[in-house]
Specification:
By secondary structure, the chain is α+β, with helices and mostly antiparallel strands. The chain has five helices and 13 strands. The longest helix has 27 residues. It binds 2-acetamido-2-deoxy-beta-D-glucopyranose (NAG) (3 copies). Keywords: Disulfide bond, Signal.
């Protein structure tokens, strides 16, 4: 006995948060003489400041490092730029990335992604900032592990405490609860690993730690397959857009189980059992949902 549920509604309101960012086209309009750095045209606006609140006061500050012929400038939560140290009239200055989102693993902030930098062949330059504990606050190192992808090490005493980069404490109560529920669902085997990852991603997006991908999501369609015994719930995501909906479905499923227990008690009370079998035997053979069928037959 299988239940196949198709959802096509309950998705309104999710898209409301979507924000399209463009650099204002008046940017740099006063720079007639291509003065140093003024040619830099950001493609996007930086994401809002997010993550551990003790890092917020780094916003608006900039740290530079000169390595060989380049001076790099990191402005946390804003941008990374590169300036060729040369007196050539056309010395290169460029944007390596604009503050985009956090990278997280194992409940820990592991890096700050700065994306949508200057064009580099068919893609845009991007950079990951690694935070390292040190007694001084400074940009310590810049490398380019693969073409046009930069890696920066930013040192600061602000990340020395062992809990300073934990994700969970930065979330509000509601989002913590949602994360707890996702963990519980995974623990009970009610969601697939992919489903769990999607639920947690939603939490991070709502917290502003990850840039929302909801804009890119397609019209909603989710199919969930509920196996008989209430132990296993396989959720197939036809669209990431409906992940949250699927989670509510899961919560409904818990309610449904309670309803089944209620029906069972009712049936027992009215001595409704199949053939010679006792209610307990029938349960064993049919599973919970079998009783639903029985109830339907009874109603008909
Ligand atoms: C980079 O960030 C700094 C600090 O917030 C800001 O003053 C500067 O205009 C930004 N540059 C670009 C090209 O976005
Ligand atoms: C996850 O973090 C905990 C402590 O925060 C640590 O003990 C554990 O080894 C980490 N696991 C992985 C896979 O990094
Ligand atoms: C159910 O069966 C029991 C004993 O078999 C009987 O005493 C009771 O009255 C029955 N209840 C109903 C609602 O028929």
């Amino acid at each position: 006995f299988c239940l196949l549920i198709s959802l096509s509604t309950a998705t309104h309101g999710i898209a409301g948060k979507m924000k399209i960012v463009e650099a204002p086209n008046t940017f740099g309009v006063n720079n007639n003489f291509l003065s140093h750095g003024s040619r830099l045209q950001a493609k996007v606006l930086p994401s809002p400041v997010s993550g551990p609140s003790h890092l917020f006061h780094l916003a608006g500050r900039c740290f530079s490092l000169t390595q060989s012929v380049y001076r790099y400038e990191l402005c946390p939560f804003h941008n990374i730029t590169q300036h060729e140290q040369s007196f050539r009239w056309n010395a290169y200055s460029g944007i390596l990335g604009i503050w985009h989102e956090w990278e997280m693993a194992n409940n820990t902030f592991t890096g700050m992604w700065m994306r949508d930098g200057d064009t580099c062949g068919t893609r845009n330059r991007e950079a990951k900032v690694l935070l390292a504990c040190s007694s001084q606050t400074k940009l310590a190192q810049v490398s380019e592990p693969s073409t046009c992808v930069y890696s920066l090490t930013f040192e600061t005493p602000l990340v020395c405490h062992p809990h300073s980069l934990l994700v969970y404490p930065t979330l509000n109560e509601k989002l913590q609860k949602e994360w707890d529920e996702a963990e519980q669902a995974r623990y009970e085997g009610l969601v697939t690993e992919q489903g769990y990852n999607n639920l947690v991603r939603d939490v991070f997006e709502d917290a502003g730690l990850l840039k929302s991908q909801k804009a890119a999501r397609k019209p909603p369609r989710v199919e969930a397959e509920v196996e008989t015994h209430g132990r296993h719930l396989l959720i197939l995501y036809r669209s990431a857009w409906m992940r949250r909906g699927a989670f509510y479905l899961l919560q409904d499923f818990h309610k449904q189980r309670e309803e089944i227990a209620r029906l069972r008690a009712l049936l027992t009370h009215h001595n409704i059992t199949k053939g010679a079998k006792t209610t307990a035997e029938a349960q064993q053979l049919r599973g919970d949902v079998g009783l639903l069928e029985l109830a339907k037959q009874d109603a008909a």
